[in-house]
Amino acid sequence: MIDMQVVQSSNIEAIGYDADTHELHVRFLTSGKTYVYPGVPQEIYEGLMNAPSHGVYFGQFVKPIYTHFYIQ
How many other CB atoms sit within 10 Å of the CB of residue 30? Predict the structure, then answer.
Protein backbone atom coordinates (compact mmCIF):
# COMPACT_ATOMS: atom_id res chain seq x y z
CA MET A 1 0.00 0.00 0.00
CA ILE A 2 1.36 3.42 -0.89
CA ASP A 3 1.21 6.48 1.32
CA MET A 4 -1.73 8.72 0.50
CA GLN A 5 -1.61 12.45 1.19
CA VAL A 6 -4.91 14.09 2.13
CA VAL A 7 -5.59 17.14 -0.06
CA GLN A 8 -7.98 20.07 0.05
CA SER A 9 -10.43 19.40 -2.76
CA SER A 10 -14.17 19.24 -3.26
CA ASN A 11 -13.98 15.81 -4.93
CA ILE A 12 -10.54 14.28 -4.20
CA GLU A 13 -9.79 13.05 -0.68
CA ALA A 14 -6.20 11.85 -1.04
CA ILE A 15 -3.46 11.31 -3.62
CA GLY A 16 -0.49 8.95 -3.66
CA TYR A 17 2.21 8.02 -6.12
CA ASP A 18 4.58 5.08 -6.54
CA ALA A 19 7.65 6.38 -8.34
CA ASP A 20 8.94 2.84 -9.00
CA THR A 21 5.81 1.66 -10.85
CA HIS A 22 4.58 5.10 -12.01
CA GLU A 23 1.16 4.46 -10.50
CA LEU A 24 -0.96 7.40 -9.41
CA HIS A 25 -3.53 6.60 -6.71
CA VAL A 26 -6.49 8.93 -6.24
CA ARG A 27 -9.17 8.44 -3.55
CA PHE A 28 -12.42 10.28 -4.18
CA LEU A 29 -14.67 11.83 -1.55
CA THR A 30 -17.98 10.89 -3.16
CA SER A 31 -17.36 7.15 -3.56
CA GLY A 32 -14.51 6.55 -1.13
CA LYS A 33 -12.92 4.42 -3.84
CA THR A 34 -9.24 4.59 -4.71
CA TYR A 35 -8.51 4.59 -8.42
CA VAL A 36 -5.10 3.58 -9.76
CA TYR A 37 -3.74 5.19 -12.93
CA PRO A 38 -0.74 3.22 -14.29
CA GLY A 39 1.96 4.79 -16.43
CA VAL A 40 1.66 8.32 -15.04
CA PRO A 41 4.95 10.26 -15.21
CA GLN A 42 6.23 11.80 -12.00
CA GLU A 43 5.90 15.28 -13.56
CA ILE A 44 2.13 14.79 -13.84
CA TYR A 45 1.92 13.69 -10.19
CA GLU A 46 3.95 16.71 -9.10
CA GLY A 47 1.77 18.99 -11.21
CA LEU A 48 -1.33 17.51 -9.61
CA MET A 49 0.02 17.99 -6.10
CA ASN A 50 1.10 21.59 -6.79
CA ALA A 51 -1.98 22.67 -8.75
CA PRO A 52 -4.20 25.42 -7.33
CA SER A 53 -7.13 23.06 -7.97
CA HIS A 54 -6.44 19.33 -7.75
CA GLY A 55 -9.79 18.55 -9.37
CA VAL A 56 -9.27 20.83 -12.37
CA TYR A 57 -5.75 19.53 -12.98
CA PHE A 58 -6.94 15.94 -12.62
CA GLY A 59 -9.76 16.58 -15.09
CA GLN A 60 -7.39 18.09 -17.67
CA PHE A 61 -4.20 16.06 -17.37
CA VAL A 62 -5.08 12.66 -15.86
CA LYS A 63 -8.67 11.56 -16.38
CA PRO A 64 -8.88 11.96 -20.20
CA ILE A 65 -5.40 10.51 -20.83
CA TYR A 66 -4.71 7.57 -18.50
CA THR A 67 -6.66 4.37 -18.01
CA HIS A 68 -7.59 3.32 -14.50
CA PHE A 69 -8.89 0.59 -12.24
CA TYR A 70 -10.11 0.83 -8.69
CA ILE A 71 -8.95 -1.04 -5.62
CA GLN A 72 -11.56 -0.03 -3.01
Answer: 9
Instruction: Please state the pTM of the whole predicted model.
Output: 0.94
- 58 Cβ contact partners less than 8 Å away, ≥ 6 residues apart: 12, 26, 48
pLDDT tens-digit series, residues 4-61: 999 999 999 999 999 999 999 999 999 999 999 999 999 999 999 999 999 999 999 9
- CA-derived radius of gyration, the chain: 11
Residues 6 or more apart in contact with residue 36 via CB below 8 angstroms: 23, 24, 25, 68, 69, 70, 71
Q: By CB neighbour count within 10 A (0-12 exposed, 13-18 middle, 19+ buried), where does 20 fall?
A: exposed
